[in-house]
Design a protein that fits this description.
With about 325 residues, the chain is α/β, with parallel strands linked by helices. Helices cover about 30% and strands about 15% of the residues. Strands 7-8-9-6-5-4-3-2-1-10-11-12 form a twelve-stranded mixed β-sheet. A hairpin with a 7-residue loop joins strand 8 and strand 9. The longest helix has 13 residues. It binds S-adenosylmethionine and iron/sulfur cluster.
């Protein structure tokens, strides 16, 4: 399916919960957020119905996210069901990794094809300062377990001045020693992210080259997203940069998001979208829903305007944990 600007949309990011077992400072306030009442969350059967309908429209890649997706019960069953849909090529998950080690085998058996673990530092103390919890060891164990299972693994890091800026080069040593890709994601000024200062990708690349030698821009296309990948001499994995601020990639956007309460969100910047819950709970047929989704896609914004997010009408006001990143 295509949007109003002719972009092919084949990638759906699904947030299955707004709950989280960490409190990353750029994502969620320490005191937590007002949680969506349970009855307002889409059931996993409703989520599956949306994915089934959209798979029939051309969605072939799905990512399960949150909040922390692994705090929602029965996510494995959802993955298994999505895996069974005709034409589904990839089902990945973005997780903080805390609960992953104990579930990775069953997730793989259910059909999960890849995992992104969010990890901003190799130091337990810094981890606790950023996330509010002493869980670094569990995340590192999960990294090893995912590799033992032979699954595709990417590590996502959000560089923030004053939080992890002195540890970014060291984090890349994981990609030197292990077959994982490390990706540095520019901080977006959404929710709590507005209280922090991100670090542009070129600054991080310069620091990495000073330590590990000259990098080559990789020709190989990896994943569904806009990351630019580099090869460093002697590294097992690649180093990627996702730079929505310094290298806007909206012209190639291929994604929409389903929030935990059932909004089809068209762009990370804007709060507008299609409310699917009233349709799902109000007797709409698959054909009705398909029609509404097609119409909504024609309204997908051309691009984000993060530079003016506070001033723009319709800007997202919720925290990243409520959107799904
Ligand atoms: N809890 C899971 C995790 O941490 O991977 C999934 C949800 S989290 C919202 C998804 C991703 O969004 C994480 O990699 C996180 O680091 C990133 N993120 C959160 N706030 C962000 C911000 N303001 N700018 C850029 N990325 C952000
Ligand atoms: Fe939770 Fe992920 Fe947000 Fe951290 S980034 S608070 S782990 S949702």
């Amino acid at each position: 399916m295509t949007d109003g600007f002719g972009r092919t949309i084949d990638y759906l990011r699904i947030s299955v919960t707004d709950k989280c077992n960490l409190r990353c400072r750029y994502c969620m306030p320490r005191e937590g957020i007002a949680l969506i009442p349970h009855r307002e969350l889409l059931t996993l059967e409703e989520v599956y119905r949306v994915v089934r309908i959209m798979a029939g429209m051309g969605i072939c890649k799905v990512r399960i996210t949150g909040g922390e997706p692994l705090v929602r019960k029965n996510v494995t069953k959802l993955i298994k069901d999505i895996h069974g849909l005709p034409g589904m090529e990839e089902i990945a998950m973005t997780t903080n990794g805390v609960l992953l080690g104990e579930q990775v085998e069953e997730l793989k058996a259910a059909g999960l094809t890849g995992v992104n673990i969010s990890l901003d530092t190799l130091h337990p103390q810094t981890f606790e300062r950023i996330t509010g919890f002493d869980r670094h060891g569990q995340v590192m164990e999960a990294v090893e377990k995912v590799l033992e299972q032979g699954m595709k693994l990417k590590i996502n890091c959000v560089p923030c001045r004053g939080l992890n800026d002195t540890e970014l080069t060291e984090l890349a040593s994981l990609a030197k020693e292990r077959p994982v890709d490390i990706r540095y994601i520019e901080l977006m000024p959404v929710g709590c992210g507005r209280d922090f200062e991100g670090i542009p990708s070129h600054e991080i690349l310069a620091g990495l080259e000073a330590c590990y030698g000259k990098a080559q821009l990789s020709e190989e296309k990896r994943g569904n997203g806009p990351a630019r990948y580099y090869d460093f001499p002697g590294f097992c994995g690649k180093v990627g940069f996702i730079s929505p601020i310094s290298h806007k990639f909206c012209g190639e956007c291929n994604r929409v998001r389903l929030t935990a309460e059932g909004r089809l969100k068209l762009c990370l910047h804007y709060d507008r979208g299609l409310e699917l819950k009233p349709l799902l709970r109000g007797g709409a047929t698959d054909g009705d829903i398909r029609h509404e989704v097609e119409e909504a896609l024609q309204k997908k914004p051309k691009e984000h305007d993060f530079e003016h997010i506070g001033e723009r009408e319709g800007s997202e006001k919720r925290k990243m944990v409520q959107i799904g990143g």
